[in-house]
Design goal:
This protein has six helices and 14 strands. With about 200 residues, it is of the alpha/beta class. The protein is globular and about 45 Å long. About 45% of the residues are buried. It is an enzyme of class 3 (hydrolase).
Length: about 200
């Protein structure tokens, strides 16, 4: 598996291109992601959203139309793709596949598993591909996602962190902002954040 990434837009949102067997998955194409993605894909097969915030989905519609590929997004965040609830002027996009909870998919022979970790948003999820977790805005290096936004929920964040602590694996983590980390490292950091929830 090859991973390309670029921090896009004013919020430095990481857009990822995952290449497996000469096929590409695009994760969280945010603001100003389109031209970079188009330069770096040859056989794209899907767009995957970790959650619905505008800085992660801004280029969904443009890329989906130009590349003729489906969008997978958590069902509980689809209203953010469609309705621009924060008034940011986000181009509307529509998920072809609305992901429910912890759901796995075979996308042209590539196994993709969504883990539902609500709290940052109602549908906030992390996406596992080949022992690598793309954590969106749920887990960052030495930090967690904010839970004080509209539609955020501190109680759900606590429950999601408890679920995260129960995962027994040694995965790399590539977050929605900032540097990569590992699951084991962040499991050690998580208990600190319970003091604030």
């Amino acid at each position: 598996m090859q991973i390309k990434s670029r921090a896009c837009g004013a919020y430095g949102t990481n857009c990822y291109i995952i290449t497996i067997h000469d096929k590409e998955l695009i994760i969280d194409p945010g603001m100003e992601a389109t031209s970079w993605v188009l330069r770096n894909v040859h056989h794209p097969i899907a767009i995957l959203n970790t959650h619905g915030h505008f800085d992660h989905v801004w280029s969904n519609a443009e890329l989906s139309a130009q590349l003729n590929i489906p969008i997978y997004a958590p069902v509980d965040d689809c209203f953010m793709l469609e309705d621009d609830p924060f008034g940011q002027g986000t181009p509307p996009s529509y998920a072809n596949v609305k992901v429910v909870g912890d759901e796995s998919f075979d996308i042209e022979g590539i196994c993709v598993k969504f883990f539902h970790f609500p709290g940052h948003t109602p549908g906030c999820s992390a996406i596992l591909i080949d022992n690598t977790l793309f954590s969106g805005d749920f887990i960052f290096k030495n930090s967690i996602g904010r839970y004080d936004f509209p539609y955020s929920n501190a109680d759900q964040m606590r429950q999601s962190l408890e679920k995260f602590l129960k995962i027994d694996a040694d995965w790399k983590i590539f977050p929605g902002h900032g540097e990569s980390t590992t699951l084991k490292v962040e499991q050690q950091n998580v208990p600190y954040w319970f003091n604030f929830l």
